[in-house]
Amino acid sequence: MDLPLSTQQLKLIIREAAEMGAIQALTKVGKLKPYLKKSEAFRKYGRANIENWAEKGILTIRKDGDHSAVWRIDRLEVAAIAKSIELLRYL
C-alpha cells in the first residue's frame, strides 16, 4: 500500500526520527538518564497523558518496590509514544 506523503510530512517524520536518535545517543553515552521520574514525565508530557497511556497499557511504568516506590518511566518509550501521537495528528 502506497501512502503519498507531502514534502512537509516527510520533513516532519525525518525531524522526529532524528530527535529520537539524539535521545538514544545521549542516553547511551550517559548524558541523559535512561529513565524519567514520575514528576519529570508529568511536567514534560502532561499528567493526564502519562496516566492515560499507562492505564491503556501503552506505557510501561516500572517500580522498584511496593506501595510508595518511585516510578521509573523509560525515556525512549515515552518519547516514542508522544512523537507517534503527534505525527498521527499531522499525517
Write a concise synopsis of the structure shown.
Helix content is 62%, strand content 10%.
Could you explain how this protein is built, in words?
- This protein has 91 residues and is mainly alpha-helical.
- It has one domain (7-90).
- Helix content is 62%, strand content 10%.
- The protein is built from 4 helices and 3 strands.
- The protein has helices spanning 7-28, 38-45, 47-56, 75-90, and strands spanning 35-36, 61-63, 71-74.
- The chain has a 3-stranded antiparallel beta sheet with strand order 1-3-2.
- β2 and β3 (71-74) form a beta hairpin.
- The model has no long low-confidence stretch (mean pLDDT 91).
Essential attributes:
4 helices, mainly alpha, 3 strands, 91 residues
Strand-helix topology:
Layout: H1 7-28, E1 35-36, H2 38-45, H3 47-56, E2 61-63, E3 71-74, H4 75-90
Antiparallel strand pairs: 1-3, 2-3
Helix pairs in contact: 1-4, 2-3
End-to-end Cα distance, whole Å, is 15 Å
Stretches where pLDDT is under 50 for at least 5 consecutive residues are none
- Taken from the alpha-carbon principal axes, the silhouette is globular
Determine the fraction of residues in helical runs and give it as a percent range. Answer: 55-70%
